[in-house]
Specification:
This protein is mainly alpha-helical. It has one domain. 58% of the residues lie in helices and 0% in strands. It has 5 helices and no strands. Helix 4 crosses helix 5. It is globular, with a radius of gyration of 19 Å. The relative contact order is 0.11.
Length: 113
C-alpha cells in the first residue's frame, strides 16, 4: 500500500523565491543547499519591504553582502560567522535603521556650553 499522505506533498511545486534572495544566490553569498534557509531570507525581505522601500533594501543588502564577502565571512573581530542568516539579519536591520536616520546619536544632542 502506497503512503498517500507523503505523495500529496512530493508532487507540489514550491513557491518561487524572492528576487533579493535569488540575487544573493547568484552572488554566491548564500547557497541553495537548503530551501528552508532560503525561505528564511524570503520572509526577511518581505518583512523589510513592509517598512522600507525596495531601493533602500537593495542598497543595504548589497552593502552587507559585499562587506561580509570581503571579510571572508568573518565578523568585524575576525571570528568566523557561525550563523550567516542571523548575522545578515542583524546587520541589514542595523544598516537600514542607519540609512533611514532611525538611530538616535546622543552625541549630536550634546550641549557644548
Amino acid at each position: 500500500m502506497k503512503d498517500t499522505k507523503i505523495d500529496r506533498y512530493i508532487d507540489k511545486t514550491l513557491p518561487n523565491h524572492h528576487y533579493i534572495t535569488l540575487e544573493l544566490l547568484r552572488r554566491n553569498f548564500i547557497s541553495g543547499e537548503s530551501d528552508f534557509d532560503l525561505y528564511l531570507y524570503d520572509a526577511l525581505f518581505e518583512e523589510l519591504l513592509l517598512r522600507y522601500d525596495f531601493k533602500t533594501v537593495i542598497v543595504a543588502t548589497n552593502y552587507v553582502a559585499t562587506r561580509v564577502k570581503q571579510q571572508q565571512f568573518c565578523s568585524e573581530d575576525g571570528a568566523k560567522i557561525e550563523n550567516l542568516y542571523a548575522y545578515f539579519r542583524s546587520s541589514i536591520t542595523f544598516n537600514l535603521r542607519k540609512i533611514t536616520n532611525q538611530i538616535d546619536f546622543d552625541w549630536l544632542n550634546d550641549d557644548y556650553d
